[in-house]
Design a protein that fits this description.
- 47% of the residues lie in helices and 15% in strands.
- It contains 8 helices and 7 strands.
- Strand 2 (36-41), helix 2 (44-54) and strand 3 form a beta-alpha-beta unit.
- Helix 1 (21-32) crosses helix 8 and helix 4 (107-135) packs parallel to helix 5 (156-175).
- The longest helix has 29 residues, at 107-135.
- The structure holds NADP nicotinamide-adenine-dinucleotide phosphate (NAP).
Length: 261
């Protein structure tokens, strides 16, 4: 039987927030195709734990970063390029979702949501794009959200930041349309990770509802009546990274059981 060679084999992929949740699922999918992986996140221990699994499949580099901090992002990408060469695939996945009623969304919370979710995406692209243009190939996938496409109550700052990530995606896709680099957003609905586990705990604490009632409150948004799995988000990302997806740019791919269409 002849060996199937993946088009992504050997490509250097950076996954921010790659140590757990959706980012870890994406890193596993890319590693499964032979891409070499840099995992970035805040916790070195979390990154190393995930890297231990991936090293059975590919070369892996770990580097800590605060995506909201320009100097930290510069240093992290310098380390990634020194270890595995220019970045070909950038997955801007690191994110946070704090909830609060609008009048309790103070400037600190507002700025934090914009800094991590929006500025972090901007800084990652600024660091990786020159190398993509030099090597003549690149894929940028921003993990946005259904909160990029519709509003949800009590998360104004998160929704504003995620809507802005989509604006950045669309504008940059047009700017780069004649170059061999695509820019897309993947928009998950409620997905079973720590963010959702925290949201469920929050609903239970604030409303006195049971775990089942709190889960029902979230899944009622999804016409399929369930939480999305991280691997389902990773599958959409992997498709966007394939050479055959070169004509897909500036898109928002909703992975949400039909919640947005
Ligand atoms: P998660 O399990 O809480 O993971 C968040 C990841 O982001 C972690 O790896 C974390 O790193 C990293 N991170 C957070 N702040 C960071 C910072 N300042 N600098 C560097 N890394 C940082 O959440 P998730 O559900 O996988 O979310 C991943 C992405 O999907 C986020 O952008 C989120 O908005 C988006 N999303 C999630 C859902 C959902 O329902 N789960 C729905 C729509 C969109 P550490 O491990 O080091 O803390």
């Amino acid at each position: 039987m002849s060996e199937i060679k993946s088009a992504l084999a050997g490509r250097h992929a950076v996954v921010t927030g790659g140590g757990r949740g959706i980012g870890a699922a994406i890193a596993r999918a890319l590693a499964g195709q032979g891409a070499r992986i840099t995992l970035m996140g805040r916790s070195a221990a979390t990154l190393e734990q995930e890297a231990g699994l991936l090293r059975e499949l590919t070369e892996v580099h770990c580097v800590t970063v605060d995506v909201a901090d320009a100097e930290s992002v510069s240093a992290a990408f310098a380390s990634a390029v020194a270890a595995l060469g220019p970045v070909a695939i950038l997955i801007n996945n690191a994110g946070q979702a704090a909830s609060a009623p609008f009048m309790r969304t103070d400037p600190a919370l507002w700025n934090q949501m914009l800094a991590v979710n929006l500025t972090g995406t901007y800084l990652g692209i600024r660091a990786a794009l020159p190398g993509m243009l030099e090597q003549g190939w690149g894929r940028i996938v921003n993990i946005a959200s259904t909160a990029s496409l519709k509003g949800y109550a009590y998360v104004t700052a998160y929704c504003a930041a995620k809507h802005a990530v989509l604006g950045l995606t669309r504008a940059l896709a047009l700017e780069l349309a004649k170059k061999p680099v695509t820019v897309n957003a993947v928009c998950p609905g409620y997905t079973e990770t720590d963010i959702v586990r925290d949201t469920l705990a929050n609903i239970q604490a604030k409303t006195g509802r049971s775990a089942a009632e709190a889960t029902a409150e979230l899944v009622k948004h999804n016409p399929q009546g369930r939480l999305v799995q991280p691997e389902e988000v990773a599958s959409a990302v992997l498709w966007l990274c394939q050479p055959e997806s070169a004509a897909v740019t500036g898109q928002a791919i909703s992975v949400s059981g039909g919640e947005t269409m």
